[in-house]
Every structure is written in structure tokens, then in C-alpha cells.
Amino acid sequence: MSDTRDKKPRTPGRGGQRGNYKGNNRRPAPKPGERRPMPRRETGPSARDVALRALQGVVRADAYAAQALDKALTGAQLTPEDRKFAASLFYFAVENRLYIETMLGKFLDGKPEPVVNDILHIAAAQLLFMGGVPDHAAVDEAVKQVRAARREGLTGLVNGVLRNLIRARDAGELTLPDRETEPVQWLSVQYSVAPVIAERLIDAYGLDRAEGFVKSHPNRGQAIRYNRLKIDQAGFEKWLDDHELKYHPGAIDGAYIIENGGNLADTDGYRQGLYSIQGQSAMLAAQAVQAKGGMQILDACAAPGGKTALMAEAMNNAGRVYAWDVHDHRVALIRAAAARLGLDNVRATVYDARMPMESIKLTMDAVLVDAPCSGLGVIAEKPDIKYRTNTENLDSLPPLQGEILEACAQVVKVGGKLIYATCTVLPAENEDVVNAFLKKHPEFAPDNGADWLPEFLRNQLVDGMLTLSPDREDFEGFFIARMVRKEI
Q1: Which residues does the annotation mark as catalytic?
Q2: pTM of the predicted model, to two decimals?
Q3: What is the set of domains in the chain, with CATH numbers?
């Protein structure tokens, strides 16, 4: 074991405000070795209770982090500062869950019952990551929460564990597995990712690169793109200025990075369809289609509809984008997005993309398969992925991805494009799936044309495939492969 922490422990998890969390007003995480000062010295227990309820929604009810927080905040009578405190506390607890669990485990004989375990995690997040919260306040409020949960007999346990945690923190005794001799365990605890994630990233890329995928990265801000059907670039920048939003152009044509936006889905411009909120990697996957007016395009795994909308806008409402999803409620999201943006050329349908559709065989100019995946490229924005991922679901994905790609390829016409994309960085879900498909289907070939890419990315395209790495570019982790159906 090696001691990688000083008396004010480093933050092991992801840092930076993640703009895709609706209603998330988190401030950036502290730098390594720093416990962050909070905007106020004390916050009432109601803010901690909100954070606790949100945490329980994630770890007990399998809710997504952003949804769990929104639900917990709904109806809560909190001041703006308390809302920020609750959100920060919740995300520190979620993003650093395995690290916190490991450190608490040093002072526990077995795992306590769920409600007490969650209370301990909320308190430990304050003690380890939120330096402006007095230690006694974190401990006292945890004891109050235990009493409120009618676990009076466990107040002594909670008090003792947390005071032992404080002493060990101050003595520099919160040790980690050794980085060199136990790399999987070290990466898993240090950055709170499931051991199977750590193992597969290390196997694919080595420890240094794997660490780059999961450690703290600079705050990207929120990426949005304006709707060319409703506003031009000058008009959109005026709208941004009028609303006092701080922004700069993104790397993708039409994209802007908003640095102080708050909840950008709650503005008049969003409701009027002036823009969409979308990560730049997702924008690039849709732009790989090179949609033009009059084309017939299939977006096979389309919900919630961001890529569908980008392609439909590029077509200037001419032609068709057929958007499929297997769930009714997700198809409803696509239709709602199309209506908000004023898109008349979107046809959203409930359909299982694993099933070939004979009626449109060899008719599509382009097909986009944004396949279900492990999501390891976007764990910064979706920290709950770190705990949902296990060996079984990782192993089940490549066969599913291959099945969808196989079925959807049948509708691509001669000369048409087939685009395969994921928001993960594991080769087993990316290059391996594409190469297996190409080996089986000589009528398809890699499309090495790079004119759809920003110039600084073109030299990274290999055999028609591009991996966007969150440790190297200002993008979410993503994979995009372009293929073309040849004349045979």
C-alpha cells in the first residue's frame, strides 16, 4: 500500500461543472490537494437531506444522477446557496463513491444498512472534499440524519466512524492500493470506477492513458448549436449577448461553448427552437453523414433526437430523416425535439433496429447507427455509469452492436454511407465491431474521406475510423466509423 494523499487529500474524481446536468449549478471541484472553500459556513440539514435523497435515488433506485437531483430538489424550500450546496454535495458523493467507500471501510466491520451507509457517504463527501464545511457540522448533521431515519442505536457508530475518518485524514493515513503493483485496484479506488472498467481500460491503453480517460479534466462548459432554420449566426450571437451569456465558438461548425449558462433548457430561446444542447462529439457523429437536401437518411438508434435534428436542419427541411427507437417514450422525445425546432422532414417511429426492414432495402443515402454502448466516454457527464457497469453488460454489448449494424446495413443503397458511432472508448465496442462487420461484408469499405472533419482532427482518421479521447481533445469520448457500399 502507498500513501498518495497529504493531510488535505486530493480529489480523486472528475472535476469541473458538467453543463449537461439540467439545473446543475455545481462549482468546479477542488484542485488536487485542496479542500474547496464553500460559499457559506453553515447550511441547514434540509440541503443535506436533499443530497441524501438524490444519492439514494442513484444507488438504491438506479436513477440517473441528473434526474435524481432534479427530483430531490423539486419542491424543496431551499435558498439558491443551499441548492448549490446540495448539488455540490450530491455530485461529490456520487462521483467519488468508491473512494469514499474504501476510506470508510477502514473503520467499519462490514457494510452498515443502506440508509446509514448513505448518510456516512454524504458526511464523508463533506469531510474529504468540501473544506469550507466545518468537520463538527458534517458529523453533527449526519448524527441528526441517523436519528431522523429512526436509527437512534446507530448514532454512536456513525459518530465514531466519522471522527476516525477525520483523524486519519489529518494524519495522512488514507492510503490507496499501490499504483505499480496493483494498477487495477489503484485506478478503481483513486477515480471511483468499477474494477472492470479500470481493468479493460488498462488492457486496451495502458495505465497512463487509462488514467487520462477517467481523471479530472478542464471544465468544457455547455456545448450548444444554433438552429440555422430559425436564426443565422449573427442573430444567434446577438441573442447570446442580449442574455448576458459568456461564450466562445466551438470546434464544430455552428457550435458554441457557454461558460455561465446554468440550465440552458429553461430559456425562451430554447423553447423557441433557436438552439439545441448537444456535446460536440455527438454533433460530429451526425456531421459524418454529410446530410444534404433531398437525401433519404435513417437514424437507427435516434433518441433523444439531437443527431436527427442536426441532420434534418442541414437538409433545410428537404428530404427525409427516418428516426427509430425501440421505446414509445423515447420516440416521443424525438418528435418533441422536431416540433420545437420546426423540423418537418423528420419521421420518428417505434422500431427495433435489430430487425431488417425489407420495404426500404437498398434505398437510404445514409444510415447512422449510434449504437447502445457502455458510455465510458461520457462518464464525466454521467457519473452513475461508473457504478452501473459490470462484466455482464460489457460483454453483452458487442453482439448487440453487431446485430444492429448488420440489420441496418441492408438498407444502405449502392454508393451510400454507413456510419457507426458510440460514446465509449473500448476497442471491443468500436474497432472490433467495425472490423468484424467489414470482414463479413466485402460490399462495404472504409470511407477515408476526411473533409467532414475539422482540420486538426483529420490526421487522426485511420481506416475510416476516429476515436475522440477526452484526455486529448476538447470533446467527449466518442468513436465514429464511416463506411460506403461499393459497386459489386
Answers
A1: 423
A2: 0.86
A3: 1-6+13-176 (1.10.940.10), 222-277 (3.30.70.1170), 280-485 (3.40.50.150)
